[in-house]
Amino acid sequence: MPRPSLQYMLERLIALPSVSSVSPQWDMGNRGLIDEMAQWCADAGFRVEVLPLPGEPARANLVATLGSGPGGLVLAGHTDTVPCDAERWSQAPFRAVVRDGRLYGLGSCDMKSFLALALEAAADLDPKTLRQPLVILATADEESSMDGARALAEAGQPLGRQAVIGEPTGLRPIRMHKGMLMEGVHITGRAGHSSDPRLGNSALEGMHRVMAALLDWREALQARHRNEAFEIPIPTLNLGAIRGGDNPNRICGECELHLDLRPLPGMDPAQLRAALEARVASALDASGLEYRVFRLIPGVPPLETPADAPVVRAAEALTGVPAGAVAFGTEAPFLQRLGMDVLILGPGDIAQAHQPDEFLALDRIPPTLEILRGLIRRFCLTEESAGD
What we know:
This protein is α+β, with helices and mostly antiparallel strands. 29% of the residues lie in helices and 24% in strands. The strands form 5 sheets. The chain has a 6-stranded mixed sheet, sandwiched between helices. A 4-stranded antiparallel sheet has the order 11-13-9-14, with helices on one face. Strands 4-5-18 form a 3-stranded antiparallel sheet, with no helix packed on it. Helix 7 runs antiparallel to helix 9 (365-381).
């Protein structure tokens, strides 16, 4: 079959719905998109593996490999998008529209376009000329559970030595990002008539003590941890949602708090969860209240790739921009577990992600292709790459 044009790939990727969401009414699989991408890769000479997620045949990762051997370069992106409010868009979200120098469509920025650009950058490569392999990796469910990347990490299958994830960074190389923990605290007390406090034990008052303890902990964390590479250079802890009680004249029998913690690189999620539980336990000591601390999501570890990693140095040389840091999380920590140095670098801007009328500026396409081809030359085609 003739090689699909870049325009065709962009249009098809946007047109194939692949929303992932924690809300079942919005959630859908990505298998149609993966199967079409797999065919493009196979037609281009890649060795193709479609890897359904365990127990979820409608969701799959794609691993497409050109060339062979250890090492090499992985160009990675997630295939899913967030849900959208179609009525707030000026055109159909699942239709690629070019207007005013921009490509509009759900996933144009975050981050389906990168997958098309990765394939375009690899066009016409002869696998016989590759000293190290090139891998195109497309994952499932990054926007909800990150189950696609987690499955890859758990399987432990080596993919390459250097990796670039094409999340929207405005073509700035990113080597650090914060982690993300979303945790819950549930307190069970005893309901009773509000006229006599002896008849109950207020879960709401217990949560008041817990919240005070957590805000003190936040101050301690922010005094102890700081990284000036980040725009917000401290770890953040947000008390985001609380529910408890049912009536003013009843002592509150149950109360639940949901919180978000964004740790800096070097902060260990397991230690943070243990410290959270210890703070809750201390705040409720001798209160007679029962409590449970639990995860709302599995969480994402923070990322730090060494400043002298070859992929970081190469991206800095190709972009002319020093590698920096962002607050949002990515699949990079899971790829790190497979022995890769991981960089975040993509053509979109985070300000356009998750928004109505999401778009990618068309003038970002030529420099993105130039950067990707430079990385392919550096890590797949040259003698120098063999030593990385």
